[in-house]
Model the fold of this input.
Amino acid sequence: MTEVRLGADRTGWRIPSAVRVAGMVAFLAASADNYVMLLLVWIAAPQGWSGIETALVVVALRLPILLLGVPVGRGVDRWGARPMILADVSLRGLLLVALLVLSLYAGEVPLVPVLLLGGMCGALSPATYAGVRWLVPRMVPVEKLGRANAVVAISDQLPLLLSAALVGPSLTLLGTAPSLTIPVVLFGIALMFAGRLPSGPQAGVLPQLTGRQGPSTIRIRMLPSKVVALIALSTVYYFVYGPFETVTPSFVRESLGGGAATYGWLWTLFGLGAVATLPLAPLLARRRPGLVNAVGAAAWGAAMLPLLFVDDLRVAAALFLFGGVIWGPYTTVETTALQRWVDPAQHGAVFGLQRSLLATATPLGAACGAVALAPHNAHLLLALSAGTCFLAGAVALAHHGLRTTA
Done:
């Protein structure tokens, strides 16, 4: 994984190899996960799935995360990141192998196995997300968290870029059912990297963080209001963004006159924009993270709102690229803030909670978009989604602690 100038600073400090390995595992796992979602959303209409069935698929792939995110995160706090990540990538890979075999036998991707096997994949996924973010503050000094998190954040941004770039060609060259080979291979490579993860923290790093170092409690202790507000902002933001995932295919077909390649190209541009601004994330994370992310949510909504009037591919491409530019630093800023603001003994549980909320919020929003979608109203739904993203950021600015805490 390239470090895009994030690997060293003027003091000669470099990102530890363990962080880069963790980032690669997260990148591969998230790429497989995003690929499956993009693939299923695109093939829904050709396979004859109704809007409600498409919404059910999206929810089934993500809702189990809401139920198991915190317990899985507690498992990371208790047993460490490595065993939990190994179990996650192994089992998700095997579940997708089963779905691939069933799809090849049926000649299409069958709905019921997607709901069952996809739901089990979703239930396991918080382990890698929480495990990687549990590892980072145990591998690097606290003053370098922003830089290390920016490297890990590549695993949040590049997966969209890679999966969007792969889904169109794989459907064209392989066909619908064989395209499920791609995420199986990605999980297999992730498993090889996961075996290289460290089994414990680097001595002398974690104690620099504020907070008790004892074992995780059975329940998450009361969180500071700024932490609750930051997670709440992201939850609402991701929910109202959700319709972009299920409405964009219709927008591409009906308004832009494009196909799978155009669909993949738009999300590829979005991913490129997000990656391009990652080098800014460490600087932003050192400032007022709540203010940065509230302004970021509002700015993203304002940037995408003109899609209401767009029917030209070049304009749509420019907006998706610019939207990615704004989106890029968001997760790094939030991750660094939570690592600094939360008791280290609860890192796994809190990141499990965060993952469960965010990974569920977007699909629920996407499901709402799928149900509301009717012929020729894709413009309106995309604009409504963008407008409510703007409102979410604007409302968050009213929280004093979120706005002022460094």
Observations:
- Residues 17-195+219-404 form a domain with the Growth Hormone; Chain: A; fold (CATH 1.20.1250.20).
- DSSP finds 17 helices and no strands in the chain.
